[in-house]
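How it folds
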Amino acid sequence: MEQVDLLILNASQVCVIPSEHGGPQRGSGLGELGLVENGAVAVKNGRIHHTGPTTDLQTRYTAVQTIDANGRAVIPGFVDPHTHLPWFGDRAHEFEMRLAGASYMEIMAAGGGIMNTVRQARQASIDDLVADNLPRLQRMLAHGTTSTEAKTGYGLDTATEIKLLDAMLALHAVQPVEITPTFLPAHAVPAEYQGRTNEYVDLVINDMLPAGAEWMTQHHIQLFFDVFCEAGVFDVPQTRRMMETAVTLGYRLKIHADEFEGLGGTKLAVELGAVS
């Protein structure tokens, strides 16, 4: 019998979600869960080695550790493709504004929303950010998330945006959820640049994007670059300038686009090959 590191037996169902032609499921294929009744999973060298019926796997393998999953399901970990970890502080006092009918953009224009969190994140240390966000990642893991995207965007200055990337590294080192970082200095126009959006775009292009590219090189980690292309934030020409510069510096692209108004950001994203 072959020895493995971990053998999970007697699961009511093992859900393997088979790929479609070697890639992600699409269309009608999304309903194919690949259920194995009374299933088992063998794990070796940190990777899934074999899945199948318990009666099959328990005759093939011995294990350093065995888990009886009787009455439980074994499923792939959830992947959260869009989060704004790490952030600091809260916006609880804005809830009353929402109840009174204020929109997201109205709260932001009044200095709340993103700007509220920016003020708090700029004051936070890396240790503060880790302490505040580690419990969030632990709760995500407890609910089944094993991989997550995380965005900067609550700094809106070069030093804080890089600090947020460093906080992601620190968080990745102290817990098991995989973190894929996205660089989002174009999340909003900070208060000190209000009325001077083009100047802030210049700062992103000439200072922030090169700083993020240097961080990529230093840590050997691929970064995505993201922009909030929306009325009152960044228009399509401004977004194009930033995204095209990002591509030349080695970033891959994402975009927040057409959330409230259809400016054409989605078309731009498709043109430039954004992944989402």
